[in-house]
What does this fold into?
Amino acid sequence: MSIFKILWAPWRKEYITKKEKDCFICKKLEDDPQNDRENLILLRGKNTFCMLNLYPYNNGHLLIGPKRHIGDINSLNDEEIIEIWRVASKMIDIIKKEMNADGFNLGFNLGKVAGAGLEEHLHLHLVPRWSGDTNFLPVLSGTKVISEDLKSVYDRLRRYLE
Ligand SMILES: [Zn+2]
It folds into this structure.
Protein backbone atom coordinates (compact mmCIF):
# COMPACT_ATOMS: atom_id res chain seq x y z
CA MET A 1 0.00 0.00 0.00
CA SER A 2 1.42 3.37 -0.94
CA ILE A 3 1.90 6.18 1.54
CA PHE A 4 -0.77 8.18 -0.22
CA LYS A 5 -3.39 5.53 0.25
CA ILE A 6 -2.61 5.34 3.97
CA LEU A 7 -2.66 9.10 4.38
CA TRP A 8 -5.83 9.65 2.47
CA ALA A 9 -7.88 6.65 3.46
CA PRO A 10 -9.56 8.09 6.59
CA TRP A 11 -10.59 11.27 4.86
CA ARG A 12 -11.74 9.42 1.78
CA LYS A 13 -13.87 6.98 3.70
CA GLU A 14 -15.91 9.70 5.34
CA TYR A 15 -16.29 11.59 2.09
CA ILE A 16 -17.42 8.51 0.23
CA THR A 17 -19.94 7.42 2.81
CA LYS A 18 -21.84 10.65 2.39
CA LYS A 19 -21.71 10.61 -1.39
CA GLU A 20 -22.47 6.94 -1.89
CA LYS A 21 -25.85 7.19 -0.25
CA ASP A 22 -27.27 8.91 -3.33
CA CYS A 23 -25.24 6.97 -5.89
CA PHE A 24 -27.23 4.27 -7.67
CA ILE A 25 -24.04 2.61 -8.92
CA CYS A 26 -22.53 2.26 -5.42
CA LYS A 27 -25.86 1.10 -4.02
CA LYS A 28 -26.06 -1.72 -6.55
CA LEU A 29 -22.41 -2.68 -6.11
CA GLU A 30 -22.77 -2.82 -2.32
CA ASP A 31 -25.81 -5.07 -2.58
CA ASP A 32 -25.43 -8.86 -2.37
CA PRO A 33 -24.05 -10.29 -5.65
CA GLN A 34 -26.94 -12.75 -5.47
CA ASN A 35 -29.14 -9.83 -6.47
CA ASP A 36 -27.03 -9.00 -9.51
CA ARG A 37 -29.79 -9.96 -11.93
CA GLU A 38 -32.26 -7.74 -10.11
CA ASN A 39 -29.68 -4.94 -10.11
CA LEU A 40 -28.79 -5.62 -13.76
CA ILE A 41 -25.11 -6.06 -12.90
CA LEU A 42 -23.61 -8.16 -15.68
CA LEU A 43 -20.02 -8.20 -14.50
CA ARG A 44 -18.03 -7.43 -11.36
CA GLY A 45 -14.42 -7.09 -12.44
CA LYS A 46 -11.40 -6.54 -10.22
CA ASN A 47 -11.63 -2.76 -10.52
CA THR A 48 -14.69 -2.20 -12.66
CA PHE A 49 -18.35 -3.03 -13.13
CA CYS A 50 -20.60 -3.50 -16.12
CA MET A 51 -24.38 -3.12 -15.81
CA LEU A 52 -27.38 -2.63 -18.05
CA ASN A 53 -28.70 0.92 -18.01
CA LEU A 54 -32.10 0.96 -16.32
CA TYR A 55 -33.17 3.67 -18.76
CA PRO A 56 -31.70 2.40 -22.02
CA TYR A 57 -31.47 4.44 -25.20
CA ASN A 58 -31.34 1.20 -27.12
CA ASN A 59 -31.40 -2.55 -26.43
CA GLY A 60 -28.22 -3.66 -24.68
CA HIS A 61 -27.28 -0.15 -23.48
CA LEU A 62 -24.48 -0.75 -20.93
CA LEU A 63 -22.73 1.29 -18.27
CA ILE A 64 -19.09 0.43 -17.58
CA GLY A 65 -17.00 2.18 -14.95
CA PRO A 66 -14.67 2.02 -11.97
CA LYS A 67 -15.94 0.47 -8.75
CA ARG A 68 -14.48 3.46 -6.91
CA HIS A 69 -16.86 6.37 -6.40
CA ILE A 70 -14.99 8.95 -8.45
CA GLY A 71 -16.33 11.54 -10.83
CA ASP A 72 -13.18 13.08 -12.24
CA ILE A 73 -11.92 11.34 -15.38
CA ASN A 74 -8.37 12.27 -14.36
CA SER A 75 -8.75 10.27 -11.16
CA LEU A 76 -8.92 6.95 -13.00
CA ASN A 77 -5.79 4.87 -12.41
CA ASP A 78 -4.07 2.85 -15.13
CA GLU A 79 -5.60 -0.44 -13.99
CA GLU A 80 -9.09 1.01 -14.18
CA ILE A 81 -8.49 2.58 -17.58
CA ILE A 82 -7.24 -0.72 -19.02
CA GLU A 83 -10.01 -2.77 -17.44
CA ILE A 84 -12.78 -0.42 -18.59
CA TRP A 85 -11.47 -0.66 -22.13
CA ARG A 86 -11.10 -4.45 -22.00
CA VAL A 87 -14.62 -4.90 -20.64
CA ALA A 88 -16.00 -2.57 -23.33
CA SER A 89 -14.22 -4.50 -26.09
CA LYS A 90 -15.44 -7.81 -24.70
CA MET A 91 -19.03 -6.57 -24.45
CA ILE A 92 -18.89 -5.26 -28.02
CA ASP A 93 -17.87 -8.74 -29.18
CA ILE A 94 -20.66 -10.38 -27.19
CA ILE A 95 -23.36 -7.96 -28.35
CA LYS A 96 -22.25 -8.31 -31.96
CA LYS A 97 -22.48 -12.07 -31.70
CA GLU A 98 -25.65 -12.35 -29.62
CA MET A 99 -27.68 -9.37 -30.80
CA ASN A 100 -26.23 -8.82 -34.28
CA ALA A 101 -25.50 -5.16 -33.57
CA ASP A 102 -24.21 -3.28 -36.60
CA GLY A 103 -22.36 -0.61 -34.66
CA PHE A 104 -21.81 1.05 -31.29
CA ASN A 105 -21.68 4.48 -29.69
CA LEU A 106 -19.31 4.79 -26.75
CA GLY A 107 -18.96 7.85 -24.59
CA PHE A 108 -18.72 9.57 -21.24
CA ASN A 109 -21.18 12.29 -20.30
CA LEU A 110 -19.04 14.62 -18.18
CA GLY A 111 -20.96 17.44 -16.55
CA LYS A 112 -24.69 18.15 -16.47
CA VAL A 113 -24.45 20.24 -19.63
CA ALA A 114 -23.23 17.12 -21.43
CA GLY A 115 -26.15 15.07 -20.20
CA ALA A 116 -24.66 13.41 -17.13
CA GLY A 117 -27.41 12.06 -14.89
CA LEU A 118 -24.92 11.03 -12.22
CA GLU A 119 -21.83 13.22 -12.21
CA GLU A 120 -20.21 11.79 -9.09
CA HIS A 121 -19.52 8.28 -10.37
CA LEU A 122 -17.85 7.94 -13.76
CA HIS A 123 -19.39 5.55 -16.26
CA LEU A 124 -18.89 4.83 -19.92
CA HIS A 125 -22.06 4.47 -21.99
CA LEU A 126 -21.97 1.68 -24.54
CA VAL A 127 -24.96 1.87 -26.88
CA PRO A 128 -25.45 -0.83 -29.55
CA ARG A 129 -26.75 0.38 -32.91
CA TRP A 130 -28.57 -1.35 -35.73
CA SER A 131 -28.92 -0.25 -39.33
CA GLY A 132 -32.22 1.55 -39.61
CA ASP A 133 -32.50 2.55 -35.96
CA THR A 134 -32.74 6.24 -35.14
CA ASN A 135 -29.99 8.84 -35.50
CA PHE A 136 -27.58 9.35 -32.66
CA LEU A 137 -29.30 12.49 -31.36
CA PRO A 138 -32.76 10.97 -30.89
CA VAL A 139 -31.04 7.96 -29.34
CA LEU A 140 -29.32 10.17 -26.77
CA SER A 141 -32.40 12.19 -26.00
CA GLY A 142 -34.12 9.00 -24.92
CA THR A 143 -37.06 9.17 -27.28
CA LYS A 144 -36.54 5.74 -28.76
CA VAL A 145 -38.95 2.96 -27.91
CA ILE A 146 -37.14 -0.05 -26.52
CA SER A 147 -38.45 -3.27 -27.92
CA GLU A 148 -36.91 -5.82 -25.61
CA ASP A 149 -37.23 -5.98 -21.84
CA LEU A 150 -34.17 -5.57 -19.61
CA LYS A 151 -34.23 -8.97 -17.91
CA SER A 152 -34.30 -10.81 -21.19
CA VAL A 153 -31.38 -8.74 -22.52
CA TYR A 154 -29.60 -9.41 -19.21
CA ASP A 155 -30.03 -13.18 -19.56
CA ARG A 156 -28.87 -13.16 -23.17
CA LEU A 157 -25.64 -11.32 -22.35
CA ARG A 158 -24.96 -12.81 -18.94
CA ARG A 159 -24.49 -16.37 -20.18
CA TYR A 160 -21.35 -15.28 -22.03
CA LEU A 161 -19.85 -14.00 -18.78
CA GLU A 162 -20.35 -16.95 -16.45
ZN1 LIG B 1 -20.77 5.76 -6.58
